[in-house]
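pinging the channel bc i need a second pair of eyes. not urgent but kinda urgent?? the chain im working w is below, pasted from the shared doc
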Amino acid sequence: MEEYKNISHTFEPIYDKNSRILILGSFPSVKSRENNFYYGHPQNRFWKVLSILFQEELPHSVEEKKKFLLRNRIAVWDVIKTCTITGSGDASIRDVLPNDFSELFMNVNFQHIFANGNKAYDLYMKFVYPDWKIAIQKLPSTSPANASYSLEKLLENWKVITS
């Protein structure tokens, strides 16, 4: 049985002044932490969904992913700065310290903020929304743990980010 560990988020948000969409996750998976970049689990459908929706080739390297996001005016970050977690499971998250959204929200004019899954949405509403009152829209998680959503069903729900 895996043990709980207190872990800090180690990578920066991806954004620039032209970003118009912010996609928030909860906390990086074990694979993402190993790769030191967002949505690093090979079975996570985040990059596949975005590449299909924006009609671009699937990015593979961290550099390609960063360029893809910025080219499409997308910012990516996670709500949690540090937490206690077992493995990658959102359900095991506790002792949450949220990221500080001040710099991001004061310097970027986001038109839409989306949560990648229930946990990201719930954490945003608990820790970020009370201070900033900036609305967020919940989207189904692209995580492999969300097996009830086929790629087609994810695409149907996620297409809202392109409008």
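so The CA atoms of residues 21 and 141 lie 17 Å apart. and The helical segments are 30-35, 46-53, 62-71, 102-107, 118-127, 129-132, 151-158. — does that match what u expected or am i reading it wrong
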